[in-house]
Design brief:
alpha+beta, Rossmann fold, 40% helix, elongated
Length: 128
């Protein structure tokens, strides 16, 4: 329930980026294989909520992102949490090992800056 003039903020994080080289490997080795396994509802987030019915006065909100310095193991662990990854692994249990092997040459042993943009829809209830 939202009170009159109350503010509603809907947010989720988008695809993470690391570097052009690593992002290309992520697309080929991770995102393409898991794409068919995502729940249909994830499209709302990927489309930045623009197709979500949102009957509120729009409120401008700054662009934000989550940033973290991760090792390759942390990135693969994060990928393992995705619904689509878990669904694919039911049929392809070695998938994460393949992901690690594909990313390792580009990632190296160091920590990399991982940036996940936040997709935000913000609005105010119009009633007074």
């Amino acid at each position: 329930m939202l009170r009159p003039r109350g503010l509603l903020l809907v947010t989720g994080y988008g695809w993470s980026t690391v570097s052009p080289e690593i992002d290309a490997v992520m697309e080929r080795a991770v995102l393409t294989p898991i794409r068919p396994h995502w729940p249909r509802e994830n499209k709302l987030l990927w489309d930045r909520y623009r197709d979500l019915p949102f009957p509120f006065e729009p409120v401008a909100f700054p662009e934000l992102a989550i940033e973290a310095a991760w090792t390759l193991e942390q990135m693969v662990g994060y990928i393992a949490t995705w619904t689509a990854t878990r669904r694919l692994m039911e049929r392809q249990p070695g998938f994460l090992g393949e992901v690690h092997a594909a990313l390792a040459p580009a990632w190296g042993a160091e920590r990399r800056q991982v940036v996940s943009p936040l997709h935000i829809q913000c609005g105010r209830h119009g009633a007074t």
